[in-house]
Design brief:
Blueprint: H1 3-20, H2 33-38, H3 41-65, H4 74-82, H5 87-100, H6 109-118, H7 130-134
Helix pairs in contact: 1-3, 3-4, 3-5, 4-6, 5-6
Length: 138
Amino acid sequence: MGKRNLIIGALLASVFLVWSVPAAAEDVPFVDGKSWKKSAPILKRSYLIGFSNLMNAEYAVQQEFGPPPDRQTAIQRLYEETDEVTLDEAIDRIDKWYEDHPDQLDMTVIEVIWLDMVRPNLPASRRYDEDAKSEGKR
């Protein structure tokens, strides 16, 4: 089976899986620092594996069909900046970020990944209002 067919099959399977889940979107919470700190390592790994799979699938689609015109998407940045980061390194960095920012446990894990792993490598002109977010002024 070709790589393209595998990707399309995985995407279709994901869509059907999501449609089969009866929970409404508001029933699925974002994972923030409070839930992250209470989670066992296997749950942290599972969360990051799921996020990574979604990111890789979206990146593959963008490679096949192209990104939105005149833009680099967040998925491209996430993929590029976390490509060499192992799961254990990501967990350690997220854990450390929450330890260093105990007053920001309401920050989602996705925001922490962006602030800790992606944002430092962005050109200053592309950082927009991240300073306000990192200070808890979201």
